[in-house]
Amino acid sequence: MRKRQVVVRREEPSTTSSSITIRIVRYGECQKNHAAGVGGYAVDGCTEFMASGEEGTDGALTCAACGCHRNFHRREVETEV
Questions:
Q1: CB-based contact 39:30 (threshold 8 Å)
Q2: What CA–CA distance (Å, rounded) separates 75 from 23?
Q3: How crowded is the C-beta side of 70, counted as CA atoms within 13 Å?
Q4: Within 10 Å of residue 48's Cβ, how many Cβ atoms?
Q5: If I label 48, which of 40, 59, 62, 67 is the partner at 20 to 30 A Cα–Cα?
Q6: Strand extents, DSSP E, the chain
Q7: How far apart are CA 30 and CA 8, in angstroms?
Q8: Contact predicate 20/11, CB 8 Å
């Protein structure tokens, strides 16, 4: 097994800029393939991520509707300037 190193760059907020960028992140339908083990393709039909717990807990990353992790849901990012 080979290890990978991932570098994540974060932009620091500029104090000279007067514009503020707001990013709103929503999670849409579930894209988990439940039939991958048998060589097929089937999704469960969950249309939107709903957290099963409060923010900051493990339940905040689990969907209450389908039980999948938040990463299986399509991420939608809206940027406002």
A1: no
A2: 12
A3: 15
A4: 13
A5: 40
A6: 22-30, 73-80
A7: 26
A8: no
How far, in Å, CA of 29 to CA of 35, rounded? 17
pLDDT in tens, the chain (81 residues): 566 666 666 666 655 556 788 889 999 999 999 899 999 999 888 889 999 999 899 899 999 999 999 999 999 998 877
Query: What was the pLDDT predicted at 3?
Result: 61
Pairing of strands 73-80, 22-30: antiparallel
Q: What is the pLDDT of residue 61?
A: 93
Instruction: Note every long-range contact of 36-39, with CB atoms under 8 Å and residues 24 or more positions apart, other chains counting.
Output: none
**Which of 28, 25, 11 minimizes the C-alpha distance to 80?**
25
Residues 64 and 74 sit within 8 Å (Cβ to Cβ):
no
Q: Which pLDDT does position 70 carry in this prediction?
A: 92
